[in-house]
Structures are given as C-alpha cells and as structure tokens.
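Progress note, project year one: complex with zinc ion.
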Amino acid sequence: MGGGRQVLVVEDQVPIEEFEGIAFPVPATVHLEMRYVDRLLHIEGEIDVKAEGQCDSCLEDVSRAVHVDVDERFDPHAGSESDQFGENNVLTGDRLDVADLTQQLVLSAMPMGLRCGDDCKGLCGTCGANKNTSACSCDGE
Ligand SMILES: [Zn+2]
Ligand SMILES: [Zn+2]
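Model obtained:
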C-alpha cells in the first residue's frame, strides 16, 4: 500500500444477454479501473461490444459497434434502497459484480432501436420496397 491510492484494474470478457431483439454475438470487452476516493467507489473505464439486430426502419440486418464510457460512483456504505444499482446486486457490500454492471451499462447505452445508419430511408409505406436499395415508383405521391 505505502499510502498510495490503490487501484484495482479489471480486464474481462463479459457475455451480454439478448435484449429486445438486439443480440450480442461476442462477449463485451471490459476495461475498468476501480479506486476508493473519499469512501466512494469510483469506477472508470470503457466497454466495447458488438450489437446485432434488425434496423427499426428498413428491417435489414444491422451490426453495430457499441462503445460505453464508464464513469460511475458507488457508495458501498449506503443502504441498498438508496443505491441506484442496489436492487440488481451490482454492489454487494464491497464486492462488485462486474458481469451485472457491464450488462446494465451496455443496455443503458443502447439506443431504443437499432438503425442501419443515420440516413436510413426506411421502407416505402405504399409498396414496402427498401428505399435504401431500390427506387420504387410510388414517389411523388
Ligand atoms: Zn435501415
Ligand atoms: Zn413504393
């Protein structure tokens, strides 16, 4: 110890469970650094994972990289009811459930629906053609 700040580094691969049609085919790559600062547990780092699902707009298969910047504070001395993650047992006493934390952080960082791209044109409301790949003759309406 020697009076220095003690840092616990976690390098892990965490499988993420499928969530509302979004699958995570490979485990998330987790890099976290934890340290106690003024009795609070600071967790900083990053999580990278690949998400797969259908584009909400055009229904094409989508595979997107998801990056999560982690910057969390936990009070290990707080009662479980005032701890925002307490009900999920991320932090039990001074033990941290990295898999549970990772799952929650990834899901909270996910957009409500996957899109194949910000400029997805979606499907034609009349004939159902994918407007990204084909120009149908319904235009001009
Ligand atoms: Zn799309
Ligand atoms: Zn059309």
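Residues 124, 126-127, 129, 136, 138 surround zinc ion (ligand 2) (CB under 6 Å).
The radius of gyration is 21 Å.
No further modelling is planned for this target in the current period.
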